[in-house]
Amino acid sequence: MEPFLRKRGVHEDTLRGLRDQKIDEGAVRGMSDSDLSEYLPKKGDRFALKDFLGKGQEKPKARKASLMDRLRDRLRSRRDNSTDTCTDEDEPHSTAGKRQKLNAKKHIHKVHLGWYHFDEKKKIYLQVRAKAGGGKRTLMLNKNMNKHSIIKECFDLFFPNGKSQHGELKDMDVELTDFQLKPLENEETTLGDIIDRAKLQFIHFYLRTRSQNQIPDVDAHDDERQKDEEQDLNSSNISPVATTTSRDSNELNNEPSKFTEGSKREEHDLNPVISSISTIPSKVSEESTELKDKPVEIVEGDVPMDVGSSPDNFSLPGPLFFPVWEDSFEEVAFTHTEPIIKSCREPKEFEIVVHRGQVLRELIKIFKDNPDVDFSKDIISATIILPNGEREQAYDSGGVMRDLLTEFWDDFYEQCTTGTSLKVPCLRHDMEAEDWKAVARIIALGWILQKVLPIRLAPTFLTSSLFGMSSGKLREEFLQFIPQSESKVLSNALENKEKMEMDELLEILSNHECKVRVTSDNLGAVIDQIAHMEMVQEPAFIRECLFEVLITYELVMDVENEFQKITPTPKKLISCLECKESESDSFKYLKRYIREIDIDTKLLRNLLRYLTASDLMLYDSEGMFFKIQVKIVDLEGVARRPIAHTCGRVLDLPRMYESYPVFKSEMNAVLNSNIWVMDFA
Q: Sign of torsion, CA 636 642 644 648?
């Protein structure tokens, strides 16, 4: 009886009173409700206890045992009955058949195999469709198979007799990747090991191939490639599309430059961007453009997928074909995400216009009203309106977009998340599902165009929003999610359970709505449960909205590694500085100033944003951080101030400073003023 009441949260003083009065199960059965109310004040506890004692504990177990015995007898009689005329065709779903299937599932697992081939013109891996010999194939493979065995299965499927539409197998460089398109390095890793590590019901593997005899010399074929593109462009009758600014360049040049007394940031068009379009089909089949509200049938085996009434068979990528949602209890559910079949269309110009100070709301509304923007194809530019109603005099060749995204995420952290060092989005009554889906599009926009990620969000949350699975470091992230004072108490209690301060510990846990009695034995489990509640369960609706959109972009990244790489540190920032006059006092003052900045302060992020328009350490296609050019210029008197050209990542640094304290004072005034105006150089 006491364990039952303790599970219901009855206080120990109440249980002690029942023991003192010798009120056991027999006494409760004979007591009226009014008598029992003197010892159990809550009516729900009294009714639950009466029901618990009325049912008893032995009767259900005996009933279950008898049912199992009868089932075993029935199965035994069916096996022993030699005159049973029931065949497999008459009874396809018999209990014996189910048992065989269950035994088989212990050793085999459903696996989806796909094929990516390297496109030499686009310089990327593209998935091979079903009509070209690829598609997605579903097999039941033995869990003991290793990487080499899985590759052999791919060869048999995609290279029958060693040949395919892309060439012969002997002329290919091949590698096997997992569902995140990461190559499998360990040759001895088995399928069972991967299943245990991924915790997914459906496992995807992709064979990546590249022709050995088609790796061109880039320098030798630049001219030839340019001629081919010009011929394709002329044959398709499509004129090049160039990015344009919202204001005429002559008009901007005629206007006087605007200065502020504090500081000045300038956007400079160092490299005018002119984007031309290669071959684009001029006509799109009606079958591919009229795929609206038509069911998608998922067919098991090697049969391709039929979409609507189209005569062509489409084979969609694995993540789009099987969007799954997985919680911590390994329960898998299919989301309502519809596969996206990208239709061929011409790129279009799309301008983002927002007001300074209102970037959060306006950017969400823009992508809520325009969900069809193609970030990898369309020509996207950004413009910011000043509080006085005038446009910032800046041409967006990257800097305005980075500045816009930085302000968006700063406002998002403040208004739409909870947490300290790491944050998790929280529900708001004015943020509906479409608003959160717009946030997902902004995440994709930042990654595709600038490699920008919201690094202050918990990696577990962002990983599950991208791929539907978490990283499993929930406790570690929870200690960064709660205030530092609470984190220190919990960390000390976990490391030294014998000397933990119970009063302070219980107060912290009560603030997080802890409902159980905490001891040294269950402290770790309680913290994990609270972390799961606050970082997984509460933002579940938001995570599902983000997942439905982000899965359609097929973003490939290692979230934790990306966070570590783009998180700014003084050492990383100093390594990016380049100066022809490296021995000048001003340049030495700048490096000393950066070294003295604490890594966890906002000052470092402000400095990086002032120099590059982003508070992250962004990198190029080769994985190298962008360099910041420091030019020593002659500015004296009231005109002495640093001038940052964010598009080109150039800093004009005055030559003459009386001493380092003067330099530090003026730099702090610039970074703390928050009065930065975009302008032309």
A: positive
